[in-house]
Amino acid sequence: MKLRADRAQFADAVSWATRTVAGRVTLPALSGVLLEAADGKLTCRATDLEVAAEITIPVSIDRPGRALLPGRLLAQLVARFPQAPVEIDGEPDRLQISCGRATFHVRGMQVEDFPTLASPAEDASSGVLPADAFARLVGQVARAASTDEGRPVLTGVQLHAEGGLLTAAATDSYRLAVRSLAWDQALEGDALVPSRSLQEAAKAAGEVGGSLTIVLEEGQVSFLFGDRRLTTKLIEGTFPNYRALLPDAHETTVVIERTPLVEALQRVAIVAMGQANTPVSLTFSDGSVELQATNQEMGDAAEALPADLDGEGLTIAFNPAFLLAGLEATGTERIRIELRDGLKPAVLHPETDDEHTDDLTYLLMPMRVS
Known about the structure:
Largest sheet: 9 strands, antiparallel
Helix content: 10-25%
CATH class of the largest domain: Alpha Beta
CATH architecture of the largest domain: Roll
Number of domains: 3
Number of strands: 26
Shape: elongated
Radius of gyration: 25 Å
CATH topology of the largest domain: DNA Polymerase III, Chain A, domain 2
Low-confidence stretches: none
Number of helices: 6
Mean pLDDT: 91
CATH superfamily of the largest domain: DNA Polymerase III, subunit A, domain 2
């Protein structure tokens, strides 16, 4: 292999590929990045067997070839390269990488040990949507996914595509986040995507921008960003029927400024630190909401805020971290909270007159207060 690449493009390619390189692996090849030079292009690939990353950049090739190099070492070298073209020359077991006055000799790994990456089929169902809108969708919903690997189905985000809409849903059984987004070019189908993988795709979408193509296939989903691709395996199993969890009615509606509520919640919740499962109680009455938290070891805290109440007043308690996550997900200046009573789930929505506001639904189970 012998080639010459633009330093910025090469650094970007290595950075993209190594996002899937695991720190601890049972198969040494999984810690590597496969470089393949052919037809005026350099393709960089990496995988941890769950997620695969691939990117192609234009290069000047004197001798085509393939090599598998240690991913983290390559990333650290490239990050410190001077502003000069990158030249790679050598055999798969030992490559010379030069940039400006710097020269490195890197031992390659066995190319044959690198697993074959599944590429999307040409006839696979695909859809297109704005990359930034997708990144926002995932950021709002994925936070509700579980981190308990003992319940793998709940560690995923359910994507449902139908009728020109992409709907994402996630739940850890204590909260539920649901949001829909219109496609530019729509597909139909379902995919239970690991939350970690989906957040990685969303991060990439935010970085790259433009349009995102989603390719849905049996057992895997691919996210295409021009010359870049992320492919992830799907979670096996059936996602809960979350629509049955959404209340069909509510008795009380509260509209409140989001930022003051977030700040008050953060202050009041401080007394809950150091004591597990300490809730924050919200008492809604005409024209106000009072937040309270009590810690037998540290004391208590309370703060009141103005709020618009429609319906009967009530008191309800929540896990403060879960409530805060829901408030942050809405992103609007005001939020709407729909309630039935102190023991039934509450539902948070963005509140605005803008018809283009995200249709986010964030359901939160209350905590019992003794």
